[in-house]
Amino acid sequence: MSAVRASRFVQAGAPRRISVSFEFFPPNTAEMELSLWGAIARLAPLSPNFVSVTYGAGGSTRERTHATVKRILAETMLTPAAHLTCVAATRGEVDAVIAAYAEAGVRHIVALRGDPPGGVGELYAPHPGGYRNAADLVAGIKRSADMEVSVSAYPEKHPDSPSVEADIDMLKAKVDAGATRAITQFFFENALYFRYLDRARASGIEIPIVPGMLPVQNFKTTKNFAARCGASVPDWLAERFDGLENDTATRKLIAAAVAAEQVLDLVDHGVTDFHFYTMNRADLVYAICHLLGLRPGAEYDASPRPHAATEGA
Ligand SMILES: Cc1cc2nc3c(=O)[nH]c(=O)nc-3n(C[C@H](O)[C@H](O)[C@H](O)COP(=O)(O)OP(=O)(O)OC[C@H]3O[C@@H](n4cnc5c(N)ncnc54)[C@H](O)[C@@H]3O)c2cc1C
Fold first, then answer.
1. Is the whole model's pTM more than 0.85, yes or no?
2. N or C: which end of the chain has fewer CB within 10 A?
3. Residue nearest (by alpha carbon) to ligand 1 atom 27
4. Over the stretch 16-35, which tens digit does the pLDDT of each residue have?
């Protein structure tokens, strides 16, 4: 009989430190506002390293992103990170957003180039008076504010990029400009992430490259989303959801099993930091975090704060 395998979370008697961050998008209806704040309330006690709020294409959510980040600062103990893109904006416009965040007390920006106005596939052209690309934006942020800056990374390369090498060169440029963390596009084959990590390390990139995890809340939506951002969806994943289109309960169980398999394999290979694309839904992410050993912190104050979640929704 083989010996019982020691818990993957215990190393020499000490629990392994798992750190998570959660990504949300700014709501645009009262109903979405409620579900966002419900998700934040459920996930906050897990004490994430930070929570990030996306910035709609071309700055379309500028005010809503700002309002959401400000509310996180005002009403929770969470550390927010504001996403910011430089596409279709002048330097002056982008700098004004950075200054407003700094003024509001935000200390972390996720700096991105953004998709061209016509969407993925259209040739990207920087705004004539704007930041040229994400590396240029990182440099601009570091020049003007005391901010931690995270950036994107693409284990399967960005769809615009001629090669993985070009992608890694871009990541290097962003690091040289001052980025201290990269968050990856989602992926379903962990081997892709580890191969990318090896290439980045071989190119002298030493910052944490945190895997971006997308729990499959809805397979069809995930597939469409993946097609737009150049992430592959393996056949085995499609097979697991096959025939469950009208069976929500089983779909949820399968989604949890798929996500568990992926994160636990990453843990087994030494990964301790995870960024979750929550899609403003908590249940699946909460369950995966529980599996990773995270528990609501005793120190977390769950008492209502000023402007409780239902107000202003
Ligand atoms: C973690 C994460 C968070 C994101 N958050 C948001 C968000 O909040 N809002 C939003 O709108 N989008 C977001 N995106 C998507 C992102 O804006 C798009 O993927 C965009 O097309 C690229 O921006 P970037 O900063 O990732 O690009 P970069 O890192 O600047 O570029 C990615 C790669 O594309 C190639 N490339 C870039 N420009 C060119 C060019 N002109 N010609 C040829 N190749 C080129 C380079 O090889 C480069 O490595 C996010 C992506 C990730 C991974």
1. yes
2. N
3. 113
4. 689 999 999 999 999 999 99
